[in-house]
Amino acid sequence: MKQIVRNLTRRKLRSFLTISGIVIGIMALTTMGALANNFNALLMGGAKYYAGYVPVADAGSNGVTGGGVLPLSKQSEIEAVNGVARVFPTISVSAEPGGLQVINLGIPDYIASYDPAEDQYAALKTSFASGGDVTSSGQIVLGSNFAKEFGKRVGDSITLPVKPSDAQPDFVQHTYTVVGILKPTLTAPDTGAFVNLADAQQLFKEQLPLALQANFDQSKYVAAFNVYGTPGTNLDQLADRINAQVTGVKAQKPSKIVAALVQGGALFTEITTAAALLALVIGGLAVINTMIMAVSERVREIGIKKAIGATTRRVMREFLLESSFIGLVGGVVGFGIGYAVTALLNASVPPSQGNLFLVTPGLAALCIGFALFLGTTAGIIPAFRASRLDPVTALRAN
Fold first, then answer.
1. 286-342 pLDDT tens trace
2. Residues 276, 373 within the same domain
3. What is the DSSP code string of 112-146?
4. In which domain, by residue range, is 226 found?
5. Are 192 and 110 in contact (CB under 8 A)?
6. Of 186, 219, 252, which residue is a domain's last?
7. For residue 80, what pLDDT is reported?
8. Is pTM, for the whole model, over 0.90?
9. Total number of domains constituting the chain
10. Which of residues 252, 277, 312 is at a domain's end?
């Protein structure tokens, strides 16, 4: 090890620039990889969230977020379809109607109806960081990011929806008691606030135009249904059966929603990986150049070593260890800087927005391992060249 360090310090500036090339590449791989990790974690959470049920909305809506209303009586028709295990009526409204919303995870803050029984069927399970379920009107459960954004804890009161600056005089708000705060899920529930169905129906009515509110009985309508199948039921086929047997509704196939999320994640990963690998290629070329120059400058030294008995394998191993050491140092330093950068950027983002970067042990192993592999691979040709030098010719070199 001492000899390797001594060899590198002979040309301090060149060694520094070479290691810097690796550092920059690994730092780029760390930051871009952490960004891709976080993005994919959000998408995979969303995929798991939407993969476990069939969203059913009004036939004129988009099938996921609603856009129309459905008679609550449709619930019994959907429950009669073969393969349906449970149907949960849902309503979701904006937490800040008509105003500029803070967008977390790409999902605007929302208030939705909540039935604790649904968690028994959902593929994505939620759990409480503190508190518990909604049991009556006037109570609310907050997603992790929602709670951070408004600075609320269990036992606090929160007034919703948020009143925008341009709100009309008849804008209605309600004060709820926070009874639970969910643990982070890295998907939709993190930006939600959850009340019972009756409270959600009242909020829905109050966001309608005044002309419609007078004759609207909110207790008879919902925005959508979450439909769960019996064990072994193909949910895509269940969606087809619902569309065929129940009029006026639109059931979305979960596979299409999940496929769109997965496709977006794959494209993002490819883009970030390509950018990072480009930087690493530059670092690899720098290592090759440094090691070739090192061989050229140490021809006499190599000749002496071979003349006193150094084998071809030993000479090759020495140069490979040197290039591997360059890669290892560059990898460790580059990952350390990249980790520090991602930590600082995450700290600069408001807590309500969640993190931008996700550094995992797997990413750390990938970055440092790739740097070591890069250094070792880049040193193969120079090491082979050094090991093949003829000692007599080397000793005659100036």
1. 666 766 666 666 666 666 766 677 677 777 787 788 888 888 998 999 999 999 999
2. yes
3. EE--GGGGGT-SS---EEEE----STTEEEE-HHH
4. 54-252
5. yes
6. 252
7. 96
8. no
9. 2
10. 252
